[in-house]
Amino acid sequence: MTTPPDLDSMIAQYATADFGDSTLIQEAGLESLSLLRLAVEVAAGEDAEIDAAGLVDLRTVGDLKVWLTSLVPDNADGTGAAC
Asked: Could you tell me which SUPFAM superfamilies the record lists for this protein (predicted)?
């Protein structure tokens, strides 16, 4: 089992404003391309599949972190650990 990524640090690389879990994605300054780049970083595998349709339901940074956690290779079944 691998160590879960530090999602706050990863998100901070793309955010243009301070954020917490309840911050709206737009208020954090995250754009769709940034969200996809984060997904690719977290999934980190040539064979990884990213369901971009999951982006539609994301409203807050907390929602984003839950979705990203589901992409972690050891959590591919969607039962990822809490962030």
From this structure: ACP-like (SSF47336)
Can you read off the two tokens belonging to residue 18? 């301070």
- First-to-last alpha carbon distance for the chain, in angstroms, is 16
Cα 31 from Cα 48, distance rounded (Å): 22
Q: Which of 12, 10, 19, 16 is nearest to 29 (CA)?
A: 16
Neighbours of 3 (CB within 10 A): 7
The Cβ of residue 44 has, within 10 Å, a number of other Cβ atoms equal to: 13
The 10s digit of each residue's pLDDT in 20-74 is 999 999 999 999 999 999 999 988 777 778 888 888 999 999 999 999 998 887 6
Q: What is the dihedral of CA 40, 44, 46, 49, to 10 degrees?
A: -50
Angle at 49 between CA 44 and CA 52, to 5 degrees: 105
